[in-house]
Amino acid sequence: MKVIEYTSENFWDLLDEHLCLRQIETNVKIDEVVKSILEDVKKFGDEKIIQFAKDFDKVSLKKNDIKISNLKKLYSLDQLNKETIESFKVAINNIKKFHQKQLPENYEVINMNARLQSIWKPMDSVGLYVPGGNAVYPSSLIMSVVPAQIAGVKRIVCVTPPTYNFNPYIAFLLDELGINEVYQIGGAQAIAALAYGTNTIQPVNKIFGPGNAYVAAAKKQVFGKVGIDLVAGPSEIVVVADENNNPEWVAADLMAQAEHDENAQSILITNSKEFSDKVLDKIEDLKNKLSKKEIINTSLQKHGLIILIDDLNLSSDIINKIGPEHLHLQSSEKEEILKKVNNAGGIFLGNYSTEAFGDYVAGTNHVLPTSGAAKFSSGLGVIDFMKKSSLVEINKTSFNALSKHVENIADVENLDAHKLSVTIRQTK
To answer: What pTM value is reported for the model?
Structure first.
């Protein structure tokens, strides 16, 4: 892991240089391939879905295979670990409890006898992309489905890459959550089907869910035709810890992010060089025991960073500059630092609050802004599955009170028809 000191004259330049490594890459070649896929699916529909399944996923599909008609055929409770099933149920329950509190309330204002309302309604339909292959995340499925259901979305569509060995836990959760519209479509072609529709699948209003570079590119290209949640970059964490912490615990926290992806970014901010050395030693001790040790090693070598700072109370400036997806405050000054943190997706407070709890069972949502997007966006929630309308009701009294102001502003903007729509209603 690279080490930089806060006292360095060029500290902020060095930090900027390191943060540039996490930017979501734009690959022209991928964009061109995705554009072609989108156009093909838009034009030829199911025919291309079947062809791409064979070309990209090495799975032969018939038209009737695209939609999964019976989830129960894809799993049996006997093949699933009972304790794991219980854990998923605990996660679902906790996520429901937390997200239920996010439902926005309508409100009404009477101003100068005009009635104004803010009206929240759920979206009619959403599409959820569920990754397959090496990246199978049942937890991400829960994080998307639960807030959508709480919001009241009537039609929730799930797409997932076709396979001859459908993940039984994904199948169980889809069934458990009551999702009955599931399609075997993956990659950019899945995003195209959700955006434009085919004979088999009707289009949706907004698309959610993580995916590979082709999925991310497709989401960017269909935005405007449909809404999207966000374009996610590699996972990232900032851990703030002092010498009083357990270096083994901190090492595990850093590796928990690093194992996601070779481009994942793990950053430690500490006031002790001795402590950071201990953390590095523990990483060396622990990583060889882990199944993704090569990914962890590459991630920490390429993107890992240790920031040495004398006073951890000053770390909030660094945190706000980074805008991390995950922030874990483990120092004795954690409460003071927290007060000054403005930019962070998910915040984890205290030694026992490892980020894995937020990923799975705590109840908060683990779909969070990456690559500094926490400076202007938030984690996934119920409101992302809803939209707000405003209502204006002008009666005769409020008309008489407000019409002259409309006319005056219309004159300034030289919009005669705006003015006419008011004056034509005035009693002569």
So the answer is: 0.92
